[in-house]
């Protein structure tokens, strides 16, 4: 007998909910595509909220920025709390209001955080950084090194799900494939005989070979 209470759908087991996915990191989650007419959000976990002084129970105003430092440096998305710039003219900049209270991330987790609801800005983040928006993406929020503004930068968090442990190091699946191909190419280069096709013979094929027989001369 199997009796289950407290599930959203009957017949399913109760899923274990995660209180906080990154308890030691300041993380911003930008939601990917969610379907037509569904708003997308930028979510700030508890550590990210502390960095930006996002207090639960009141609305804060954020401003997003971009940094392009040349071909050899990756583009960056920046964010700042407008309270840190008292001389800001609100009529000349685009700002975004946070939620007043903490909001739930999803049905699969009990994690909650402050949020900015803006499908437009979510699209801008993915587009500016050249990322696919088929799923959510997570960024670590780090202090931006500047004496002019008190801002924070979005740094993508690299997932370990697609890595493979090898004898020497941790590699992605693509790196493993490239490594194997390089080793095969090197082996063929060191042993050219691998590239030569064997000559067919009765000994190695088991098939009697055709013999040339001279025709008799008729007088």
Helix content: 10-25%
SSE succession:
EEHEEEEEHEEEEHH
Tell me the overall shape: flat
Separate helix tally: 4
Largest pleated sheet: 9 strands, antiparallel
Chain-averaged pLDDT? 80
Separation of the first and last Cα atoms: 102 Å
Gyration radius over CA? 31 Å
Q: What percent strand?
A: 15-25%
Side by side, the strands of the main sheet go 5-3-4-9-8-1-2-7-6
Helix/strand class? alpha+beta
Summarize the structure.
The protein has 219 residues and is α+β, with helices and mostly antiparallel strands.
Structure description:
With 219 residues, the protein is an alpha+beta fold. The protein folds into two domains: 27-156, no CATH class; 160-192. The protein is 18% helix and 22% strand. The chain has helices at 46-51, 119-129, 173-190, 202-205, and strands spanning 27-30, 41-44, 61-67, 76-81, 96-97, 103-104, 112-117, 137-143, 152-156, 163-165, 170-172. Strands 5-3-4-9-8-1-2-7-6 form a nine-stranded antiparallel β-sheet. Strand 8 (137-143) and strand 9 (152-156) form a beta hairpin. It is flat and about 65 Å long. Mean pLDDT is 80; it is low at 162-170.
Secondary structure layout plus pairing:
Elements lengths: L26 E4 L10 E4 L1 H6 L9 E7 L8 E6 L14 E2 L5 E2 L7 E6 L1 H11 L7 E7 L8 E5 L6 E3 L4 E3 H18 L11 H4 L14
Antiparallel strand pairs: 1-2, 1-8, 2-7, 3-4, 3-5, 4-9, 6-7, 8-9, 10-11
Output the keywords.
alpha+beta, 219 residues, 2 domains, 18% helix, 9-stranded antiparallel β-sheet, 22% strand
């Amino acid at each position: 007998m199997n009796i289950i209470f407290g599930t959203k759908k009957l017949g399913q087991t109760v899923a274990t909910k995660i209180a906080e996915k990154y308890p030691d990191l300041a993380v911003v989650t930008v939601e990917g595509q969610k379907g037509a007419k569904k708003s997308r959000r930028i979510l700030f976990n508890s550590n990210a909220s502390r960095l930006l002084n996002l207090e639960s129970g009141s609305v804060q105003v954020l401003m997003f920025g971009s940094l392009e430092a040349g071909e050899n440096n990756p583009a960056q998305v920046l964010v700042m709390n407008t309270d840190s710039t008292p001389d800001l003219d609100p009529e000349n900049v685009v700002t975004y209001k946070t939620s007043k209270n903490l909001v739930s991330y999803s049905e699969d987790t009990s994690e909650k955080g402050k949020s900015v609801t803006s499908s437009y800005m979510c699209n801008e983040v993915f587009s500016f950084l050249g990322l696919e928006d088929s799923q959510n993406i997570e960024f670590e929020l780090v202090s931006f090194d500047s004496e002019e503004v008190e801002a924070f930068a979005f740094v993508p968090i690299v997932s370990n799900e697609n890595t493979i442990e090898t004898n020497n190091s941790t590699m992605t699946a693509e790196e493993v494939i490239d490594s194997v191909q390089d080793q095969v190419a090197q082996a063929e280069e060191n042993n050219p005989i691998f590239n030569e096709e064997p000559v067919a013979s009765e000994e190695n094929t088991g098939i009697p070979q055709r013999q040339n027989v001279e025709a008799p001369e008729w007088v």
